[in-house]
Amino acid sequence: MSRKRFDDMPCSIARTLDLVGDWWTLLVIREAFLGVRRFSEFHDHLGIARNILTDRLRKLVAEGILVQQPKAPPRRGTEYRLTEKGRDLWSVLTALRLWGDKWVYGAGKEPLIVRERASGAAVAQLLPADAVGRPLDPRGLVALPGPGTPPEVVARYAPKRA
Amino acid sequence: MSRKRFDDMPCSIARTLDLVGDWWTLLVIREAFLGVRRFSEFHDHLGIARNILTDRLRKLVAEGILVQQPKAPPRRGTEYRLTEKGRDLWSVLTALRLWGDKWVYGAGKEPLIVRERASGAAVAQLLPADAVGRPLDPRGLVALPGPGTPPEVVARYAPKRA
DNA sequence: GCACATCGGTTTCGTGACGCAACCAACTTG
DNA sequence: CAAGTTGGTTGCGTCACGAAACCGATGTGC
Q1: How far apart are CA B94 and CA B144, in angstroms?
Q2: A113 near B150, Cβ under 8 Å?
Q3: Rounded Cα distance, B50 and B120, in Å
Q4: Which nucleotides of C are covered by protein (CB under 7 A)?
Q5: How far is the CA of B106 from the C1' of D20 (A)?
């Protein structure tokens, strides 16, 4: 009677949450983005229980989001680094951060700012764009079933009477 | 000895996760984005236990992410609708969805597609932009502490020796 | 007028995920 | 050789969650 798994749902959101959606995983990944590499650093920064951290790091390595490597011979210990798959979670973390900046902290009280080095401009929003980077109008977007959705699920969202 | 709370961490990501980061909440919000309004619809679509759904809806209403309204007199029951605060989670859901599309399903097998009505172009990425919508170079971004970060936290990320 | 369905829950109970703290082994340093 | 650092494992207790039964208020069929 474990936690309900989402891995059978035909939904990218649910499947992603199934991999990184527990309480600690995204914070571990956040630390990795901030340059943390070692078990003890994750532990000290997050205050996570050691057995839970062990479990999360192992799962993230198994999923290919982190890689674990022994350090070069003069240094002892191992280090955990983000893979491309892990670095691709940048948008997820940024979306969460921007929402919290706005709705939890409020303008001017952000704990972390991300700037473009060259211009000094801070990242303030994430804009939807097509595959070649052309921005899309957020107000004109419609959702529709893709090739991965079984017909019975499509039917659930159909209007009851046209 | 409950779950560790994140509400004391100086981090927008942690604070946001504290509000919407459990297993079901973001899926409830996803359903709300797809037009679901009623308790029984959330229950049927998600397969969530009723007591858990009750709890999640109540918390979301308490946080101002959903509003609960009795339906207009001819219809019985109540309905749950997203507030602006809730609709602002669109980027979070989209970021999760795009990651899952890419790393779980793969191109051409997405369960859900979001298109711009006018052009038919699908949302394929989220691009960082500044406050006025000017796109920023993802490779040239640097993170630095904002006004909300206490000095002792800043020190943890400082290089050990310059 | 009365049985019955629907909606939106509440209650009870059992399991497992998680927090905490103690312990541990390998390796380095003084 | 003793002590510290790193990267864990082990026990134990609690609480969050899942499943299913129950429940009251509001319609609805006849």
Answers
A1: 25
A2: no
A3: 38
A4: 6-12, 14-22, 27-28
A5: 38
How close is the nearest chain A Cα to the Cα of B151, in Å? 11
Three-state DSSP class for residue B58: helix
Per-residue pLDDT tens digits of chain B, which is 162 residues long: 456 777 667 789 999 999 998 889 999 999 999 999 999 999 999 999 999 999 999 999 999 999 998 765 556 678 999 999 999 999 999 999 999 999 999 999 999 999 999 999 999 999 999 999 999 999 999 998 888 887 777 777 754 332
Apex B11 CA angle, B151 and B133, nearest 5: 110
Nucleotide nearest to A43 (CA to C1'): D7
Q: Which amino acid is at A156?
A: R
Of B34, B141, B148, the CB nearest to A157: B34
Structure tokens of A73? 């011979």
Q: Phi and psi at residue A115, in whole multiples of 5°? A: -120, 155
CA B134-B135-B139 angle, 5° bins? 145
Distance A73 CA to C27 C1' (A): 12
CA-based radius of gyration for chain A: 20
User: What residue type is assigned to position B155 of the chain?
Assistant: A
- Distance to chain B for A29, nearest Cα, Å: 11
